[in-house]
Amino acid sequence: MAQNPPDLRPDLSNPRLERDLGTVRPGRNQPTIGMVSLGCPKALVDSERILTRLRAEGYGISPDYSGADAVIVNTCGFLDSAKAESLDAIGEALTENGRVIVTGCLGAEPDYITGAHPRVLAVTGPHQYEQVLDAVHAAVPPDPDPFVDLLPARGVSLTPRHYSYLKISEGCNHKCKFCIIPDMRGRLQSRPAKAVMREAEKLFEAGVRELLVISQDTSAYGTDWKDREAKAPILDLARELGTLGAWVRLHYVYPYPHVRELIPHMADPASGLLPYLDIPFQHAHPDTLRRMARPAAAARTLDEIAAWRRDCPDITLRSTFIVGYPGETEEEFQTLLDWLDEAQLDRVGCFQYENVEGARSNALPDHVPAPVKQERWERFMEKAQAISAARLEAKVGKRMQVIVDSVDDEAATCRTMGDAPEIDGHLYIDENFADLSAGQVVEVEVDEAGDYDLWARRL
Ligand code: SF4
């Protein structure tokens, strides 16, 4: 493979928007808006918020260019390849529709966008919801109508009804050298716990049965509050979310010491907190981590992992890594492979290092040649796949609860507590499944395992 597979890329263009976003008819005489959303789940949440606001104002939502009076392109600027993809998407929207408003991470560089596409109507940056709405109002003004449709209870969501992303904070106080997110999104700003809980409760009341907690740095939630009482507010928030009755899954957690306090709750099936941690380790060699300027670079991660597994033997660990970071020697890379052997992570994604305009890592010496990066990526993925397959094989014969994502003629596609939507594997029930429906949680016994997926029968 020439590059990271799309399902492992944080700059992944998210086709679900176009695929799953059905037509929402506008209120009387109101215009219709199209949305193309690129990038990570955090950008997806932004798109949902924008559409929810537009919907509340009576705008219609169109899944295609031809039915839209204007199109919003929510861009990603994480990697140079993502920027190119964003420019392409803007170009396509201009050709197909002609009235285009750009927002999102790449919107932080308006000259870059207007230089390539001078015809765009407006450019706004990430989370500038008000500015996006102002741009939409200017481009296609709403017709004043006191009888606009009421906002559905859970707003407009671009994820299936039974799971939803829940963004708890924005921005980041770290300065990883390969990352420009703090420049684009600013310093950490945590949402008040009450607001997060209110949103979570509304989602649950509207039928959501799995909450995917996201942010740039979930473990740091609340540490920006000046008057905070708790040292690590994420602990209280996670516990409180767990009381709702939905599955609660934590993404983007850094291995700070207080994470250990979450693990006993994950081991308790009644807590609602899934035994699942998505921790972006990025590398294992201390020198590479230092050159990356990673948070918790000095953490003894193997000891931490062993302690987590001691307290919660069923915990699923997912992570992402970068290979071919500037200065990465064969010895450093080998340390990463050895670490992976020992850590036995359940799920991993791997990126080949790429320069990103504005990132400090660009200026580091000893960039790794492309063929070496490719070769290391292949070695890494081979090992990761073997580990994943062995860990899944060990689940054969086990009983577990799974959540149903969809049902068709051939099988019910489900996920275990160890599988996040979109990025992890599936569990298929291919007998006695016709009465199942999305969002249901059922008990199964696993009878077969593949490299990434499982098959099971109902109990
Ligand atoms: S922790 Fe590092 S990689 Fe993650 S958003 Fe912050 S600076 Fe970027």
List the helices and strands and how they pair.
Blueprint: H1 16-20, E1 32-37, H2 41-56, E2 60-62, E3 70-75, H3 80-96, E4 100-104, H4 110-116, E5 122-123, H5 129-139, E6 163-167, E7 169-170, H6 181-185, E8 189-190, H7 193-205, E9 210-214, H8 233-242, E10 247-250, H9 263-267, E11 273-278, H10 286-292, H11 301-311, E12 316-323, H12 330-343, E13 347-352, H13 370-393, E14 399-407, E15 412-416, E16 427-429, E17 441-449, E18 454-458
Parallel strand pairs: 1-2, 1-3, 3-4, 4-5, 6-9, 9-10, 10-11, 11-12, 12-13, 16-18
Antiparallel strand pairs: 7-8, 14-15, 14-17, 15-16, 17-18
Helix pairs in contact: 12-13
Offer a concise description of the structure:
This protein has 13 helices and 18 strands. With 459 residues, it is of the alpha/beta class.
Examine the coordinates and then state which fold CATH places here, giving the name of the CATH topology of the largest domain: pyruvate-formate lyase- activating enzyme
Q: Name the CATH architecture of the largest domain.
A: Alpha-Beta Horseshoe
The helix content is 25-40%
User: Looking at this structure, what is the CATH superfamily of the largest domain?
Assistant: tm_1862 like domain
Number of helices: 13
Tally of discrete structural domains: 3
CATH level 1 name of the largest domain: Alpha Beta
User: Count of DSSP E strands?
Assistant: 18
Structural class: alpha/beta
How would a textbook summarize the main sheet?
Answer: 6 strands, parallel
Bound molecules: iron/sulfur cluster
Indicate the radius of gyration in whole angstroms.
22 Å
Mean pLDDT across all amino acids:
85
Biggest sheet strand order reads 6-9-10-11-12-13
